[in-house]
Amino acid sequence: MLSNDTEVRSTGRGPASGLVFLASELSLLFRRRRTWALLLALAAIPVLIAVAVRLTSGPPSGRGPAFLDQITQNGLFVAVAAITVAIPLFLPLTVGVVAGDTVAGEASTGTLRYLLVAPVGRGRLLLVKFVGTVVFCLAATLAVVLAGTLIGAALFPVGPVTLLSGDTVGVAESLLRSALICAYVTVSLTGLCAVGLFISTLTDVPVGAMAATVVISVVSQVMGQLPQLEWLHPWLLSQYWFGFADLLRQPIEWSSFASNALLQSGYVLVFGALAYGRFTTRDVLA
Predict the structure, then answer these.
(1) Which of 74, 70, 71 is nearest to 51 (CA)?
(2) How distant, in Å, are the alpha carbons of 71, 85, 154 from that of 142?
(3) Alpha-helical regions (H) of 56-121
(4) What is the pLDDT of residue 69?
(5) Given its phi and psi angles, is residue 163 left (phi above 0), alpha (psi -120 to 50 degrees) or beta?
(6) With contact defined as beta carbons under 8 Å apart, do 253 and 96 qualify?
């Protein structure tokens, strides 16, 4: 007998049924305790940063992530500092967990074959899984920024923000720029989502797919630090992950946003095609 989740997601063809399938997938994703545990862990990052700075506030040390010494002057910098801390490891780790589980998780529990016995095309299934992972990326980034903004406002003064260019903007515009940072970081992680989706089609072991996705993000960052591989840097997955700093200038420098979107689109197209090629030829009904 099919599980309730499988029955809900077993929809017919057509645009309307596709939206129902996506809504059901998102509902399933955000009803999982693991998803909320990941989001809470991310939200804890700015809280820990703010509390640590509050308890040890003193003269600027010049150490730690950029923006850290400015937190005591303006609590809105907590969100930016937290994003800077989360991008290298914590965000890729959570995205790797969700992306690696997309197909491999269904296969390991036996629900994948039931989804495909119902009239849900393999291409549509992959697209829904990818979109669901991207939505999680947005939720993860928002968790960091919102928690940082709230705890920063609670523990430190809030006022006009001095940008990296030296210009000052009001609180409303600084919040808008925080929203743009969320969008930038989400776009930055779409390539990793596609890589994780592809790896997830190669195995029935979700943990293996999760680990491989995270390892790839770490390897990309390590290679990006090696001057001997400078010729490869423009093609690395993580090349523009910290380019959101250009959103903190006046006027905003959009070139890194465009370059990042173009690079991530390339990863999505390449690894999306590989995932589709692998998944459409894979025997999952046996």
Answers:
(1) 71
(2) 19, 14, 18
(3) 77-86, 90-101, 104-109, 112-117
(4) 66
(5) beta
(6) no
Sign for the pseudo-dihedral over CA of 180, 183, 186, 187? negative
DSSP-based three-state secondary structure for 161:
strand
Cis status, amide bond into 251, omega within 30 of 0: yes
Q: Which residues contact residue 91 at a Cβ distance below 8 angstroms, ignoring those fewer than 6 apart? A: 42, 137, 140, 141, 144, 185, 189
Round to whole Å and give the CA distance between 26 and 136.
9
What angle do helix axes 122-155 and 255-280 make, rounded to 10 degrees? Answer: 140
pLDDT, residue 58, reads 55
Coil, strand or helix at 121: coil
Residue type (1 letter), 170: G
Distance CA 118, CA 121 (A): 9
* Full-model pTM: 0.89
Residue found under tokens 């700015």? 46
Reported as type and span, the H/E element at residue 168 is strand 168-169
Structural contact between residues 139 and 109, judged by C-beta atoms closer than 8 angstroms = no
What CA–CA distances, in Å, run from 163 to 88, 177, 178, 246, 247? 23, 11, 12, 10, 9
Give me the residues of the chain with pLDDT under 70, please: 1-18, 57-69, 115-120, 282-286
Strand partners, 210: none
Residues sharing a CB contact under 8 Å with residue 286, sequence separation 6 or more, in sequence order: none
